[in-house]
Amino acid sequence: MENGETSHEESKKFVLNHKTGVCEQADILLAKLPKRISALESLTKSEQFSWESIERVRKCAVVNGSVATTNSYLQDCFSILKPFMREFIDNSLLLRTWITLLIPKTEDGDNLGVEVQYVTVNACEDYSVDVKRLYHSINHYYMRRAKLLSKYEKYGNKALECLQTSIAEYDEATFIEFSLSITHLYYYYLSMYDKIMKNIDKIKKPRNDSHELCLY
After folding, report:
1. 67: helix, coil or strand?
2. What is the pLDDT along the chain (216 residues), one digit of tens a residue?
């Protein structure tokens, strides 16, 4: 009996230590999010992702009458975007884990705070899924462009103008998609932060009789 009790107490201590660490990381992240949101808002208004830059995208698709192996302008856009995307995925995971660890054991009554926790976790998950999709679509872009280039090399001058136009149009469409993705990231961060801060008390203390760090 004593061994069982000791094991249970050790398990509670182990979980509590890790919960405390996650909660501390979440608090630090929440304090940093306003700056991250402001940085993304500035990026949505930058010349780099402005639709006025579409002509520059097209010029980098076809250089001196030949299709460029890679579009240097889009590569620059991706190099800016990818760290933001990876960071969002990591941050969303941390916040979901934090809230999940604060969900108390299932009981009847007084579950409004618990419902708020689940709704917030699901919203963060939905945002993360879409950002992951956008991240993977960068690789899909390169694969699709490589196929177009192989056709260009195969047919050469027989379909030169058509293939050049096709690749330029494809690069333009990709640029538009990813210029919009910056706005998506901005809105996702803002919505996630707003949802959490509006319900911070319910998230940290879902029931009136619960502690912020809920144990089983």
Report:
1. strand
2. 455 555 767 777 787 778 899 999 999 999 999 999 999 999 999 999 999 999 999 999 988 878 888 999 999 999 999 999 999 999 999 999 999 999 887 665 556 778 899 999 999 999 999 999 999 999 999 999 998 888 776 766 666 788 888 899 999 999 999 999 999 999 999 999 999 999 999 999 886 655 545 443
12 vs 19: CA distance, rounded Å = 10
Q: Enter the pTM of the model.
A: 0.85
Return the structure tokens found at 78: 């991706």
Which residues contact residue 13 at a Cβ distance below 8 angstroms, ignoring those fewer than 6 apart? Answer: none
Q: Any residues with CB less than 8 A from the CB of 24 and at least 6 apart, and which?
A: none
The long-range contacts involving 32-40, CB below 8 angstroms and separated by at least 24 positions, are: 33/91, 33/189, 33/193, 34/193, 36/87, 36/189, 37/186, 37/189, 37/190, 37/193, 40/84, 40/182, 40/185, 40/186, 40/189
Cα separation of 130 and 128, whole Å?
5
Handedness of CA 25, 103, 84, 33 (dihedral sign): negative
Judged on CB neighbours under 10 Å (0-12, 13-18, 19+), 44 is middle
